[in-house]
Every structure is written in C-alpha cells, then in structure tokens.
C-alpha cells in the first residue's frame, strides 16, 4: 500500500535537508530519507506511540513501509552517527520523559501478510498487529494463534519478547524470523537459534531488527469453531485484566514458583499510587496510567514495588517491560 501525502518543499540547513515549514516551527522538522519518498520527522512525542501514553519525544522518527526504506533508514542513522531504537506497537515500553536520542524506527507500516494454505504457513511483516493476525488465521480455520488475540503488540515485538498468554507463546509456532543486522545484512533465524524461554529471546537488548516472521499453523479446522475459541480467549482476558486504562500489560516477569502479581498483592500494594500511576486493583502486576501520569511516576512505582517485595519475600522482581532512556 502506498501512503498518500504531499511531499513538502525541501531546503538544506547545516548539511541536513529540512522541509520549508520546519524553518518556522522546529517541532515540525522533517527530512526526506535519501533515495526514497519516506520522511524522517523530528521531535515526535513517543507518548502517542506507546500504550502507557507517557514518554518524551524521539529525536528523529521514521516509519518505513518497505525493506528498501528500512535499509535506507539504517544507512541514514549510520551516516549521521545516531543510535537506533526499534518501536513496534509500543505496548511493552516505558520511555523516559526526556525522550530518546537518535533515530526511532517504527515498524507499524511493515504489514504485508502472505498465507500459504497448502502448508498452513503464514508470513507476516514485523509491524502487523498480533490480534489482527489471530483473527485472520481463525477466520480461515487455522489453529495455533488463539492465545495471541488479546496481546496488543506487533508480530516483530512478539518475536523479540516471546509474547504469550493462556498457555501459548510465539516460540510455539514460529518457523523462522528474518532479522536485519546493523551491517545491513539479513539473517534468517529458527526458534532454536533464538534461545527462547519465558518472555525472553536472544534478540532482546540487541540492535537487530525483525523484519518478518513465518509461523506454522494447523489449517483445516472449522473457522467458526476457531473464531469462537479466539473470542473466548479475549473474553477471559478482559474479565481478569484491566484493559480500561493505559498500561503495558504485566510489568514484571513471574519469578520461579510465584506470580509477580500475587507477591505485589500480598505486600498490600493493590491501589497504591505515585502521581498518576497506580498498581491496578484488578491485577497487581499491572500499573495503570490513571490520567496525567508521567514516565517517572511509573518508574518510581516499579522501584517501590520491587523494594517492597524484596523486603518481605527476599526476591527481586525483574521488569518484563522494556525501560528506555534516562531515569
Ligand atoms: C493491555 C496489555 C496486555 C498485554 N498482555 C500481554 C500478554 O498477555 N502476554 C505478553 O507476552 N505480553 C503482553 N503485553 C505486552 C506486549 O503487548 C508484548 O510484549 C508485545 O509482544 C510487545 O510488542 P510491541 O510491538 O508492542 O513491542 P514494543 O513494545 O514496541 O517493543 C518491545 C521491545 O521489542 C523491541 N522491538 C519491537 N519490535 C521489534 C522488531 N521488529 N525488531 C526488533 N526489536 C523490536 C523494542 O525495541 C522493545 O525492546 C500486554 C500489553 C498490554 C498493553
């Protein structure tokens, strides 16, 4: 799909090509990605691109639509000497109020999807929403993605985080993932090579970009039945988890033998609030932005819960949420 927009008139300032409007309004600076008609924009507020709805601006932000634009984004950041951060749906991120330096590459426009009904394999762009994929495969009578329907991330984020729910996880059906490396070569990884475990993979903490993933599913079931099962998964989550306010889902990984939410509940922190951030009454492993929270409120609440649990249980809860920028 081609995005329609009117390319701005461009002018060069200090070696960078800036739009003419941006000369008047620094927050509207935008640069044409060399060799493409894709725009890199300055000072984009990341609060609008993350599910917590907090966080300062990206110094630069680009959302490529094609592999070529992705490659060009990498090349531009390298030429400008800028660090790169990847952003999927932003549903597992706590971004600093000070924002992020360098180039943030958003994957959400990389959505191409191909179904192979002969094999039951589906190949999906990194930015495709996981719930949409779950509904699409259910509608074809393919089993194996029912668990994914309530996880509001992208396919790329799921491959990195090994997202999972209700007994299923990404690693279960992943056949391979295409990964763009900092030297701009692409490697294809099998799940075995990614050392998957509970909400972890070797892709975490690396500057390696998942561009697409192929899943092996089980075709041939009754579409109505698979869709009904998918709906049941969603209803069950909505009944037990607080979906009404901004959050990142579960904040902490469950330590061995315990549920993080149970530990937090037992130290009496349900409903505890710092600024606009609150430990959810319905599920103590959720922190909610009750309105007006900033990233620092959430960060302080994470620390407070870690210390309280450590004091009582001698356990240090590890965040599942990825914390980015300076705190
Ligand atoms: C209401 C709610 C419920 C949730 N429930 C669940 C749940 O049940 N189970 C679960 O596992 N998670 C859950 N989550 C958390 C979250 O949705 C998952 O972790 C999801 O997989 C994150 O995907 P994302 O696209 O939003 O990634 P982001 O939050 O954008 O990024 C997460 C990390 O992955 C990196 N990243 C993202 N895309 C790529 C890419 N293409 N290549 C390389 N790195 C990349 C980012 O840099 C970051 O480090 C929930 C979140 C919310 C808000």
Can you describe this structure?
By secondary structure, this protein is an alpha+beta fold. It has 3 domains: 10-106, Uridine Diphospho-n-acetylenolpyruvylglucosamine Reductase, domain 2 (2-Layer Sandwich), CATH 3.30.43; 113-240, Uridine Diphospho-n-acetylenolpyruvylglucosamine Reductase, domain 3, CATH 3.30.465.10; 260-324, Uridine Diphospho-n-acetylenolpyruvylglucosamine Reductase, domain 1 (Alpha-Beta Complex), CATH 3.90.78. The protein is 24% helix and 25% strand. It has 7 helices and 19 strands. The protein has helices at residues 67-80, 130-139, 155-161, 170-173, 223-240, 260-266, 295-313, and strands at 10-13, 16-19, 30-32, 39-45, 57-62, 84-87, 93-95, 100-106, 113-116, 121-125, 164-165, 168-169, 174-180, 186-189, 209-216, 273-274, 277-279, 287-289, 322-324. The strands form 6 sheets. The chain has a 5-stranded mixed beta sheet, covered by helices on one side. It has a 5-stranded antiparallel beta sheet with strand order 9-10-15-13-14. Helix 2 runs antiparallel to helix 5 (223-240). The two termini are 39 Å apart. 42% of the residues are buried. Residues 1-27 have low confidence and may be disordered. Bound molecules: flavin-adenine dinucleotide (FAD). The site of flavin-adenine dinucleotide has 33 residues, from strand 6, helix 3, strand 11 and strand 15.
């Amino acid at each position: 799909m081609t995005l329609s927009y009117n390319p701005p008139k461009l002018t060069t300032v200090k070696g960078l090509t800036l739009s003419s409007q941006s000369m008047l309004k620094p927050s509207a600076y935008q640069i044409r990605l060399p060799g493409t008609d894709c725009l890199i924009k300055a000072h984009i507020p990341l609060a609008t691109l993350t599910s917590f709805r907090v966080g300062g601006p990206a110094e630069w932000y680009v959302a490529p639509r094609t592999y070529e634009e992705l490659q060009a984004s990498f090349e531009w950041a390298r030429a400008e000497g800028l660090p790169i951060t990847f952003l999927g749906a932003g549903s597992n991120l706590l971004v600093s109020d000070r924002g992020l330096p360098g180039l943030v590459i958003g994957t959400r426009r990389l959505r191409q999807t191909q179904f192979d009904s002969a094999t039951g394999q589906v190949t999906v762009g990194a930015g495709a929403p996981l719930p949409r994929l779950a509904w699409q495969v259910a509608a074809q009578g393919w089993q194996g993605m029912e668990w994914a329907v309530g996880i509001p991330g992208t396919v790329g984020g799921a491959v990195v985080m090994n997202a999972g729910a209700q007994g299923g996880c990404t690693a279960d059906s992943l056949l391979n993932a295409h990964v763009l490396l900092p030297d701009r070569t692409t490697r294809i990884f099998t799940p075995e090579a990614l050392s998957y475990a509970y909400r972890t993979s070797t892709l975490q903490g690396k500057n390696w970009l998942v561009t697409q993933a192929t899943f092996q599913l089980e075709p041939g079931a009754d579409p109505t039945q698979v869709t009904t099962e998918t709906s049941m998964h969603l209803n069950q989550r909505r009944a037990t988890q607080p979906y009404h306010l901004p959050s990142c889902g579960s904040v902490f990984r469950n330590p061995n033998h315990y549920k993080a939410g149970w530990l937090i509940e037992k130290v009496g922190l349900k409903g505890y609030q710092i600024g606009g951030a609150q430990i959810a009454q319905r599920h103590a492993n959720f922190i909610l932005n009750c309105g007006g929270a900033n990233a620092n409120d959430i960060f302080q609440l994470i620390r407070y819960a870690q210390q309280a649990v450590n004091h009582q249980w001698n356990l240090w809860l590890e965040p599942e949420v990825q914390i980015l920028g300076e705190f």
